[in-house]
Amino acid sequence: MKIRLIILGAVASWAVMSGLAETLPKADGKVSATTLPLDAKTSKVKFETATFGLG
Amino acid sequence: MISIDYDPEVLKYEDLLEIFWSAHRCDQINTSRQYMNAVFYHDESQKIAAENSRAGAAVKQGLEVDAVQTTIASVGKFTYAEGYHQKYYLTRFEEIRDILTKAYKTEKELADSTVATRLNAYLGSGMKRDWAIFIKELPDYGMPEELEKALSKAAVRMLEGVK
């Protein structure tokens, strides 16, 4: 009974946490910012992407 | 992790690699995935360029190539960080941040914005900045007139200060 309650509690917490967690966007190879003039201009430039990690 | 979209006609991948290697000690052991020193390549040519640059970086830092701990790995899928990590220096400039937030409704748009990236770098970072280019580009940033004038004035002062 106790174990069942613990499992139920853990599942409920996980369900609440995943509902609250922010869904972060993923890179899609497109530039989405085009409102401001310079952004409109640069969004038309064919670009390449470089990715780095710095500790 | 940082993802840079660049114009290959203006900047070479090798130039970015050089900046990357000079920005960290490459014999530092990676203790967590979140804060690891790494080149995440997008294709075979980037992989080759990254591997070729490793030895040069080691020599510049007075290290044996075998001592390099910096990871070179495939990028996989890049996920944007939360909004509060984006354009961090602009958090000190509420007026500008508000204008950009109104122009761009989503955090992805703000992160993708060249204008936001430029303003963040010019106003906040300690990196080498070309104020003449800033002044020339400023009208294209789409800032309100008064703010544009204030930014231009500040940039002129910076330009004169470094001469």
Report what the structure shows.
The complex is a heterodimer of chains A (55) and B (163). With 55 residues, chain A is mainly alpha-helical. Chain A is 45% helix and 11% strand. Chain A has one domain. Chain A contains 2 helices and 1 strand; from the N terminus they run ααβ. Chain B is mostly helical and 163 residues long. Chain B folds into 2 domains: 13-74, no CATH class; 83-162, no CATH class. Chain B has helices at 13-22, 44-60, 94-103, 107-112, 114-124, 131-137, 145-162; strands at residues 2-6, 38-41, 71-74. In chain B, helix 1 (13-22) packs parallel to helix 2 (44-60) and helix 6 runs antiparallel to helix 7 (145-162). The longest helix of chain B is centred in the last third of the chain and has 18 residues, at 145-162. Chain B starts with a strand and ends with a helix. The mean pLDDT of chain B is 92.
Q: What composes the largest sheet of chain A?
A: none
Number of structural units classed as domains of chain B: 2
Based on secondary structure, the structural category of chain A is mainly alpha
Number of helices of chain A: 2
Number of DSSP strand runs of chain A: 1
Structural class computed from helices and strand pairing of chain B: mainly alpha
- What is the helical fraction of chain A, as a range of percent? 40-55%
Terminal-residue CA separation of chain A: 46 Å
Tell me, rounded to a whole number, the average pLDDT of chain A: 80
The percentage of residues in β strands of chain B lies in: 5-15%
Shape field of chain A: elongated
Largest binding interface between chains: A-B, 26 and 52 residues
Average pLDDT over all residues of chain B = 92
SSE string of chain A, helices as H and strands as E: HHE
Shape of chain B: globular
Q: Percentage of helical residues of chain B?
A: 40-55%
Which stretches of chain A of 5+ consecutive residues score pLDDT under 50?
Answer: none
Q: Could you give a short account of the major beta sheet of chain B?
A: 2 strands, parallel
Q: Number of DSSP strands of chain B?
A: 3
Question: Any low-confidence stretches of chain B, pLDDT <50, length ≥5?
Answer: none
Rg of chain B, Å, rounded: 19 Å
